[in-house]
Structure formats: C-alpha cells, structure tokens
Amino acid sequence: MTYKAEYIWIDGTTPTAKLRSKTRILADGAELPIWGFDGSSTNQAEGHASDRVLKPVASFPDPIRGGDDVLVMCEVFNIDGTPHESNTRAALREVAEKFADQESLFGIEQEYTFFQGSRPLGFPENGFPAPQGGYYCGVGADEIFGRPVVEKHLENCLAAGIGISGINAEVMPGQWEFQVGPLSPLEVSDHLWVARWLLYRTAEDFGISATLDPKPAKGDWNGAGAHTNFSTKAMRENYAAIIEAAEALGRDDKPLEHIKHYGAGVEARLTGAHETAPWNEYSYGVSNRGASVRIPWQVEVDQKGYIEDRRPNANVDPYVVTRLIVDTCGAALEKAGLV
Ligand code: ADP
Ligand code: MN
Ligand code: MN
Ligand code: MN
C-alpha cells in the first residue's frame, strides 16, 4: 500500500514569493525522500540547468486528503548542496541556533483578504460597501463574508497540528486574521507557511481566492499586516528586558534594516493612518496601536511578557522577520546582560 506526500516549497517569485506544491506517492512506512523540481518554472533556475532540490524539514497530517497522507514543508537547495538564494529558512536556522539559549517565542497574526474575481469578498459589483466600523469581529450576513471558508480553514489547521491560536474577522469586509504561536522561530515560520498553503487550498474548493496583499483596497480601507509578537525567556520574566528589546529595534540603522525586509509594499501600508505608524519613524509605546512596536497593556501591569512589532506586512516572509528580530534583540539583550 501507499500514502501521498504533498511537498510544499517557497518559489523565487519577486517581490513576493509564492507557494508551490506537488504530490509524491510513497510506499507505506517509507521515509520522506529528497526530491527535485523544475526551477525554471518557479523563478529559481534557468532552463539549461533547471534542477533544484527539495529537502523535507517539517511534516504534518494532511487534513484535506486524510488517512496517512502528509503535508511536507521543504527547503530548496542547489544540486551542489548549497541553499538556494530563495531559501530564507537556511539563514534563520543559523541565527536561531546562535541565540537558542534565550528561548525566543513568536506569535504571528496573519491578516488576509478573500477575493471573488477582481473584488474583495463583500464588495458590491458597483460602488463600495458601508464604511469600516462594524466589520471587525462582526456577526451577521451584512457584515461577514466568507465565514464557511474561515471555519473550514481553522478545522484543517487543527487537524494538521498547526499551532493556530485564534481567528477573527478584520476591519475591512472580506478581511480576516488567524494567529499562529507562540512557538519557536523555526516552528512558527514552518507552521505559518503551511497554514497559508491550507488557506489557499481550502478557499480553492469554495471558488474563492485569498491574498496577502498588504493594501488590497485603495482608499479608506485598512491594509493587511502580520503583527509579530516576540519574547525571550528574560522578557517573559522581567520588564527591563521588554524595554531593552523595544529600544533595540529602534537603535542605529535597525528601523530601516528591518522595514526593508518586512514585506513588499510596506511603505504603502505604514502611512500613519489605519492603526499604523509611519514606516520611516520608529516608535514604541504601551497600549499604542499607532506605534511601530506596542507593549501590551497587560505586559506593563505584569511587568513581563512580550512585545508586538506591528510593522510587518501580511506578505512578509516569517523566516525573515523572525531572523531579524532574534538577531537584533538577541544581541542587544546579551550585551545588556538581560539573558
Ligand atoms: P491583538 O490584540 O494584537 O489583535 P492577538 O490576540 O491577535 O492580539 O495576538 C496576540 C499574539 O501574541 C498571539 O499570536 C499569541 O500567540 C502571541 N503571544 C502571546 N504571548 C506571547 C509571548 N510570550 N511571546 C510571543 N508571543 C506571544
Ligand atoms: Mn490580532
Ligand atoms: Mn488584526
Ligand atoms: Mn496585533
């Protein structure tokens, strides 16, 4: 007998990479082998030397096919064994290892928008829906669009063993959020990429598409972000470490270094309006949803916990944002003796 393994990988499309996947039939009990693909069809190779290598790094029960079938997250390598330039997970492995003793945890809030044809789900054929105000965490057919897809996606994530921790309807019609974590840097990123794949795959069966476009509707409509919540062991124990992490993200050339890699089109979303801080002015504050980094109210009360980097776009690569934050805050906390 056999089982099916869906090999999932991140392609080389710029400025925002896409997910790709294909199916391998394996004998029952067989381990997940290394596999190959045509990189010239995924912006990862030229046609004359097109072979690229898929190396399984995380596997999940496949909730779509069921049975013993699995979803397999992969890293992409060149045939000489070096990580392909699109392989951002390889660099995270090194940084995560370097600061492993700080026990970093991340919870990422993934916002996204459903589309049917060329319009966000819930936008009428002509004109616009009622202005924002009632949609966030709303209920009722006049405010909520796509709930059956969202519920199915949640079920699929739970069945796959994704560390999903919640869902909510967002500020714009057709816009939703799910949260993954708190988990280690590699885990949260692997889980988020597979949860994204499951989102597209689940919506496909409803004839609906989902997009991580950071500004899917122009004008007075909220963009879509991926707020990145972060803590180390020291931050979960004392407030000085919370403040040092928030300070470190604003020091020297760090703000721009981070922003550059927080998702294509980040400047268009971080305007200073719609619960954002301007992309070129770093700030942090307690309870402040207009700051780059928010210290949750409860964290100030408890004098320990985590910080929320509100800047990453919905289309950010979690392997990149978690690497930058672990690197910047990990080094600063170490230097300050807050470990
Ligand atoms: P918001 O009020 O910003 O919408 P959410 O409830 O959507 O907040 O998300 C909060 C996130 O914070 C969750 O993803 C959760 O996993 C994460 N989180 C909670 N505690 C920690 C922690 N100690 N370290 C890192 N992330 C955390
Ligand atoms: Mn949220
Ligand atoms: Mn949100
Ligand atoms: Mn948030």
UniProtKB/TrEMBL annotation:
One term under GO cellular component: cytoplasm
Primary enzyme class: ligase
Keyword set includes Transferase: no
Protein's name in the database: Glutamine synthetase
Catalytic activity field: L-glutamate + NH4(+) + ATP = L-glutamine + ADP + phosphate + H(+)
Domain GS beta-grasp: residue ranges: 3-81
Assembly information from the UniProt record: Homooctamer and homotetramer.
Name of the encoding gene: glnII
Alphabetical list of SUPFAM superfamilies matching this protein: Glutamine synthetase, N-terminal domain, Glutamine synthetase/guanido kinase
Domain GS catalytic: 88-339
EC number: 6.3.1.2
Any one Pfam family match given in the protein's UniProt record, by short name: Gln-synt_N
PROSITE patterns linked: GLNA_1 (PS00180), GLNA_ATP (PS00181), GS_BETA_GRASP (PS51986), GS_CATALYTIC (PS51987)
Gene3D superfamilies recorded: Glutamine synthetase, N-terminal domain (3.10.20.70), Glutamine synthetase/guanido kinase, catalytic domain (3.30.590.10)
GO terms (BP aspect): glutamine biosynthetic process
Organism placement in taxonomy: Bacteria, Bacillati, Actinomycetota, Actinomycetes, Kitasatosporales
Entry keyword set: ATP-binding, Ligase, Nucleotide-binding
Source organism of the structure: Actinacidiphila bryophytorum
